[in-house]
Amino acid sequence: MKNNVLIIDDEDQFRELLARVINLEGFTVYQARTVQEAFKQLANQSVAAIVTDVKLPDGNGLQILERVKREYPLIEIIVITAFGSIQDGVRAMKQGAFDYITKGDEDEHIHVIVERAVEKAQMQAKLHQLEQRIEHKYRFENIIGESDPLIDAISMARKVAPSEISVLLQGETGTGKELFAQAIHQASTRKDGPFVALNCSAFPKDLLESELFGFKKGAFTGASEPKKGLLEEADSGTLFLDEIGEMDPGLQAKLLRFLESKTYTKLGETKPRKVDIRIIAATNKNLKEEAIRGSFRDDLYYRLAGFTIEIPPLRNRIEDIDLLANYFLNRLNQRVQQIDQDALSLLRNYPWKGNIRELKNIIERAAILAEGDTITADLLPKEFHQSGMEQSSSVSSMSSLEEVERHHIKQVLEQVNGNKTKAARILGIGTSTLYRKIDEFNL
């Protein structure tokens, strides 16, 4: 896009004069006499702004405006005419023109108007690129892993995404619940609306209430200015309530009231407000059990758990560990290029209480410590080696290497639900060798 401007006018003298003026301000200028020539230029050149006359030999500048806004929505258009009319001006602005001017009235300032139009177009292009990157980043295709538990969770999330039903994501801390919530939002009909996240465990009760509902100026001591609540911020989009199990019971009642009525009241106000949002909640607790025990409102639980998805912990996704570890390593863009097999073996056999977040941190730490281009087993924290020792102690009664090998193969097969191909890949052996071992050990 850059600083490219297209001028469309059939008056050669005026068009060329305007082109010189704009060119002197540092813009690259393309010219066209007709509508047909203009769209040939647009097919071959990327432009930020168009200056077009209204009356052209084969059409109308307002028709160009309408078509360009449909086919090239990021281009800004300045409509210029020798015979200005209020009616045409109003129509042009309604159709999205950047400005509408009459020849002779703004000749001295045309380059300023063009400059502002180009700046706006470039900003719009940057925002568009950012939105595309965000949309791409949070697509289901970018959730890394091939394990059956993860594929099952993704399949359920894909199915529920286009609906309006509330979704409850249950999983341990660090399993990627917010990533799932973002992907559901991006695959929904609300993807052009906002995605607003709130961690319910990060605020005390009173502050969480004001964050959620907002407040009127003077609602309480210190409320010197009015504040939008996140319900209002999320209007027409999705509100993600992370760690919903930590919400205070009194606030749970207010949230339930909102879910039932779709209305809420700002702190300090009496008039209810209405918003249109979808709720996705997440928790590392078993909310159903919490509701049975009375530590979470059962009526709110059933409102939130319209569709529940279990996000698997990393220890149940052992075959995904290699993929994730190498993904995090590649993202670092450092001199370290690989992870050796001994290190990968330790990673696969670690319990991962912190899940994916912990794995990411471990890879970053090891990459910092690495002297060469490889992460080796000795670069992993001591608890990884202790984990291996604990596993060895669990089979200490097995005096032979054969028994240790049998135990390890059995453990891997159980973790992948008997999938021989996946087990062989994790063990680093061929499928035929695995089948031979299974027969040999009578597994």
Query: How much strand content do the residues show?
Result: 5-15%
Task: Write down the Rg.
Answer: 31 Å
What is the SS-derived class? alpha/beta
Main beta sheet: 5 strands, parallel
State the share of residues found in helices, binned by percent.
40-55%
> How confident overall, as mean pLDDT?
86
Spans where pLDDT lies below 50 across 5 or more residues: 392-399
Number of structural domains: 4
CATH architecture assignment name of the largest domain? 3-Layer(aba) Sandwich
**Ends: how far apart?**
64 Å
Give an account of the 3D structure.
The structure is a single chain. The protein has four domains: 4-133, Rossmann fold (3-Layer(aba) Sandwich); 140-312, Rossmann fold; 316-388, Helicase, Ruva Protein, domain 3 (Orthogonal Bundle); 395-443, Homeodomain-like (Arc Repressor Mutant, subunit A). Helices cover 49% and strands 15% of the residues. The protein is built from 19 helices and 18 strands. The strands form six sheets. A five-stranded parallel β-sheet has the order 2-1-3-6-7, with helices on both faces. It is extended, with a radius of gyration of 31 Å. Residues 392-399 have low confidence and may be disordered.
